[in-house]
Amino acid sequence: MSPRHCKPETYERRISEVFSDRYVNRVKKTDRLFGFLLLFQWILGIVFAVAVSPRTWSGEYSETHVHIYAAILIGGLLASLPIYCILKKPGATLNRMIVAVSQISFSVLFIHLTGGRIETHFHVFGSLAFLASYRDVRVVLIATAITAIDHLMRGFFWPQSVYGVLTATPWRALEHAAWVAFEDLILIYSIKLALAELRFTSESHVRLEDKSEQLSDERNQVKLLLDIAVIANESQTPDEGMKQALRLVCQHSRWPAGRAYVASGNDSSALTPMGFWHLPESERFQAYRGPLNEGNPSRPTIGLAGQVLKTGNPIWIEDAAQDQSFLVRGLSDALVIRSAFAFPIVAFGKTVAVLEFISDEVINKDNALFSTASHIGRQVGQVFERKKANDDLRRAHDEIVQFNHSLEEKVDARTKALKESQQMVLSQQQTLLASAKMSALGEMAGEIAHEINTPLASIHTLSSQIEEVVKDDPLDRNLISNMASQVVTTSDRIAKIVQGLRIFSRDGSNDSFSAVDVKKLVDETLSFCHERFKSNGTKVQVSELEPSIRFDGRSIDISQVLLNLLNNAHDAIADLEEKWIKISVTEKENQIQIRVTDSGPGIPPEVRKKIFQPFFTTKGIGKGTGMGLSISLGLVRSHGGELKIDPECENTSFIICLPKIQPNKTRATAA
């Protein structure tokens, strides 16, 4: 644990514990290594003794050399004691002191066995280097002291055993001691570095443990927040959300029990204990239920929950016995409550509830949980907000349903009135259409009468001539037959005019769509106005029409449109010197166009914008209703077509565009 999570003395104590554990483990390994090394050196000493001087001679007699006894007995003693200590208590401080004495004593023994050979002295330096692996300066100093004393004493009393010479000056011992001291300086420095490194690695290990614990805490808090978010989304009521929150907080922490309060009062200044708890060990905390659920609602100045309501912040009490504001005075002692923790549930920008947790054991403050508590409170607060939003939505839905019901009644009444109005408009349109037809027939009444009177006069004359011819003798049958044929032809012409008048004056709005012969349509329409145009000097030119050109529609409607365009053209050019009207039909892939062009100079742009508007006319007073083109446009559009002016033509030219086939005859008919 780092200083950020614990006190400095605790942190240093933890580092010292890790350092000590690691150092002891290293010492134990070194003890085992020296156990094998000492055993090996004992065997090696015996081999040296046997190899160098197995026997001592006195003249012709010999006996086992004392070196062999020294190697076996002294070497065995030097190896057995430290090995016993290592096996008995590995890692003990006394072990490495004994090992130091034994190891450097083996160096002394080897030097003696080899007769003080200079090569054997290097065993001292190797022993010191090996002993330095204990990372203990005292071990090196003990070995150094034994070496110095040995060289000094034997160099003075028995130089041959240490230097291989019969006499040696004391300065030679000082020389050897100087070289050993030089090595000691290097070894001590390396020991200090090794200990510092071990200290550093121990501190790093502690920091890593702390970081791991911190990450584990953060992971647990994230898991807690995710679980809280899930239950906040799934809970249908605030009570359910708080129950689940109590359960999750207790599961993710050391708190064994928890309960909930809800803000009450007009100003939410009091807390009412809820009737539910989270008590996994019900018998352990059964004593808490009665006293803590009784009494009046908690005020902001009473109890832990009241303090949270007042401040709006989480509160953690590590030792309830030292906090007189906890619950009711003395209650914590009576119920053996040692620690407590509470945090607010926030919704609509204020505290709406408080979750409180208690324990019969002291629980130190968990900073991670404490900092997460506010987030948990806001998450659970969303259940309150969603509940209110659902209630508001349900209330709004009921109001909308009621409003829709009222609106449907109003719409039904309005629809009924609208249908009546539409029926009235349709009736007026039919009347207006009939009036327009009658107006057109009225304008042509004189010409139609003349159109009929002329053939009637011809019939009368032929009938008189036949009457005279019949009196002749002999009877000229051929002449009579010719005159009778003329009478029949003239009568057919009158019948055709009358039939056209009957068709034109009939209401065809209810007729179904059928194939219309364009050539026949043009011929029948011209029969009404041919005599009128002829008497006024207006030439009518019709392009060659193929009988196969047809379209789906009502012939009466399109005939009226064509007749209206012809009459308008005739009236527009009545005062011009050059008077002519041209009718042409163009057949395209899916459409036919009937063009009516007159010798007029065209229609000004400002007039074109308004020419199809109802009651707009350019004729003099009493000469037009202004409804002809408006009605014509409606009739053409009822066929899915369009009536338009050709602005690029230098004369006045109207185009009737009609589809060949109606994609929806029911719609067109209804139109």
Could you describe the largest sheet, including whether it forms a barrel? Answer: 5 strands, antiparallel
Instruction: Evaluate the radius of gyration.
Output: 63 Å
Strand segment tally: 14
Q: Note the beta-strand portion.
A: 5-15%
Number of helices: 19
Distance between the termini: 88 Å
- Stretches with pLDDT under 50, minimum 5 residues: 1-5, 291-301, 328-333, 666-671
Share of helical residues: 55-70%
The 3D shape can be described as: elongated
**Class from helix and strand fractions:** alpha+beta
Quote the average pLDDT: 79
Strand order of the largest sheet: 4-3-7-6-5
SSE topology:
Layout: H1 8-52, E1 55-58, E2 61-64, H2 66-88, H3 93-113, H4 122-131, H5 137-157, H6 159-163, H7 170-234, H8 238-252, E3 257-264, E4 270-278, H9 286-293, H10 303-311, E5 315-317, H11 331-334, E6 339-347, E7 350-359, H12 367-443, H13 445-471, H14 477-505, E8 514-517, H15 518-535, E9 539-542, E10 550-553, H16 555-572, E11 580-587, E12 591-598, H17 605-608, H18 628-637, E13 642-645, E14 652-659, H19 665-670
Parallel strand pairs: 9-11
Antiparallel strand pairs: 1-2, 3-4, 3-7, 5-6, 6-7, 8-10, 11-12, 12-14, 13-14
